[in-house]
Design brief:
11 helices; 3 domains; Cytochrome Bc1 Complex, Chain D, domain 2; single chain; mainly alpha; two-stranded antiparallel sheet
């Protein structure tokens, strides 16, 4: 391609470059580009003068405005801490009853408590505290150890089967594995226990329920009570409600009776300050069951 050739369409001179028959024109840079470049340079000069900009040997240029983003953030953090201390002091000073009677304070507590719960507890109990296999549904209010705020606080603080010296201790015996009951007796008591909460009987259960009632009376009432309503002193669940920690199907209940269970709750008292534990307690106590 000839350099300096005139394009017949635009009348402009070409540069001599060609790609697949497409010739490049010698087109000047639009003046608006120089205008924006100049404006950007002027803006940069103004910023250099007004704001902290250039690093020096021991410090940096402070700028005419004396603006300091680090100082601004520090002030904001200090102000946020001061604002937070107003209501957190009330939380620590007031009783659970007084806090729960104060809607404005409880609003702050539940907002903070949900964040704490998701960060610390949701891995086991779920984001909405509805639990899962082996982890209690905290919104169902089926408390193993009691649902009073003071009891919930203690559970959070010392844990269950944890490393804390004062931990709550609970265990379901392995009646089958340890030879205390035969498989037939376990099948009988499983049928009886499932009937207590109104579950539809499995095939053959009807004939086992009466026998299972006697097995239950001989082996299970010490923990679960004669009425099977459980015992909060030892963390034994109520077997008459609809809350099944490990599942309510025949196989799940059989496995529980045969092999036993031993849950675990960390002792958060070693990891969280008293304020956070109290906020978590109030949040958990305020949970409500969501309709399906």
């Amino acid at each position: 391609m000839d350099v300096g050739k005139q394009d017949t369409v635009t009348g402009r001179i070409t540069t001599g470059h060609e790609w697949n028959g497409i010739e490049e024109l010698e087109t000047p840079i639009p003046r608006v580009v120089f205008l924006f470049l100049g404006a950007a340079f002027v803006f940069a000069l103004i910023c250099w003068v007004l704001y902290p900009t250039w690093p020096l040997i021991w410090t940096y240029s402070k700028g005419l405005l004396g603006f300091d983003q680090r100082a601004t953030v520090t002030r904001q953090v200090e102000q946020a801490a001061a604002d937070r201390s107003v209501w957190t002091t009330q939380v620590m000073d007031k009783s659970y009853t007084e806090i729960e009677a104060d809607p404005a304070l409880m609003h702050l507590v539940t907002e903070t408590g949900r964040t704490l719960f998701i960060d610390k507890c949701a891995a086991c109990h779920g984001v909405n505290a509805t639990g899962g296999t082996g982890f209690p549904d905290l919104a169902a209010k089926a408390w193993l150890w009691g649902g009073e705020p003071e009891t919930i606080e203690e559970t959070i603080r010392i844990g269950i089967n944890s490393t804390n010296a004062d931990t709550r201790t609970s265990q379901m015996l392995a009646f089958g594995r340890d030879g205390m009951l035969q498989s037939g007796q376990i099948a009988d008591v499983v049928a009886y226990v499932r009937s207590l909460s109104g579950l539809a009987p499995a095939e053959g259960d009807a004939a086992r329920i009466e026998a299972g009632k006697q097995v239950f009376a001989d082996n299970c009432t010490a923990c679960h009570g004669e009425d099977a309503k459980g015992n909060k002193d030892v963390g034994a669940p109520d077997l008459t409600d609809a809350n099944w920690l490990y599942g309510s199907d025949v196989q799940a209940v059989f496995t529980t009776v045969y092999s036993g269970r031993q849950g675990h709750m960390p002792n958060w008292g070693a990891k969280l300050p008293p304020l956070d534990i109290k906020i978590l307690t109030l949040y958990v106590h305020s949970l409500k069951k969501v309709a399906p």
